[in-house]
Amino acid sequence: MDIHLKKLYEKLLASYMTEPKEDHLYSAQQLSKWFIEKRVSPEEVINVHIGSVKRMVPELPREVKATLEMLLEVMVGYGVAYQEREQLMSRQRELEDEIEVAAGLQQTLLPEATPSLPGVDIGVISVASKQMSGDYYNFVDHGMQQLGVGIADIVGKGIPAALCMSMIKYTMDRLDAKSLSPGEILRDLNTIVERNVLPSMFITMIYGVYDSLNHQFRYATAGHEPGLIYSAREDCFTSLETKGMVLGVLRDNEYPEYVADLEPNDAIILFTDGVTEARVDGKFIERETIKSMIRDHIHLPAQQAVEAIHQKLYEMTNYIMRDDQTILMIKRVG
């Protein structure tokens, strides 16, 4: 214990033993806050107390001395537990700081804004269920009015997920000058992920290239949640094909490609499984319900539409998010 605090306590104790007053008890409460602030253990306080009492009252009855000694022994065990708790709390604060840094890193990995593409309206929303997210999306300019769109779901959370995100972003960013097909891009990503992540981690992903000249969406998937294509003329939905294996399990995987043609006001809606696995009244939300929510908001600009869909889903699940949710919409407007 700090010598200054020790003298303050001894002086206060002596005053209270001589003439007990309420002011002394109030001062003791304030002094206890200083003890906590200085991380003084309980047994230190008891030890100072016993030493002070013995000096002020040399002829203490044997029974009283015995009770004080017992109290000190009890507080020694309590003090050890207190110190362990303080160490755990300190470690918890360090972990929270690390998670805050990692969460900030995640935000820098996401695009600052949705890109513009002639005749196309794009909107995206990504909301983490906790402080950190396992969802990721990105855009890649393929030139010739072609835009690459990737959306991924990392099985895992926290700092490992943030590291996986940085790996995916770096790989996608270096594709800017390359004219790889969606299947080749997923194959490259799979090789990198398989070599660099823990065996317990893997990633689902869909990558597609939207050609705004021909309004075609060429895509490949890696075990990702099937997206939807909305036909405005027929007012109906069809699911995207999903036949590729998740990233990071086997090194030599092939990812078949598919093509979707969009007419005016048609839309492609991509999402992570946090959307389809949302629970309403204890059950997974029906895919038809998701389609109905999209249909109700498809007339809005793409960004407003995805935000409204997410808000509706959030309300239906009684404002409980069990998993990260990302919704991305590409709508042909011309």
TrEMBL record:
Q: Name one Pfam family in it.
A: SpoIIE
Question: Is Hydrolase included in the keywords of this UniProt record?
Answer: yes
SUPFAM superfamilies in UniProt: KaiA/RbsU domain, PP2C-like
Residue intervals of the PPM-type phosphatase domain: 117-332
**What keyword terms does UniProt attach to this protein?**
Hydrolase
Database matches in PANTHER family: PHOSPHOSERINE PHOSPHATASE RSBU, STAGE II SPORULATION PROTEIN E-RELATED
User: Could you identify this protein by its name?
Assistant: Sigma-B regulation protein RsbU (Phosphoserine phosphatase)
The opening ranks of the lineage are: Bacteria, Bacillati, Bacillota, Bacilli, Bacillales
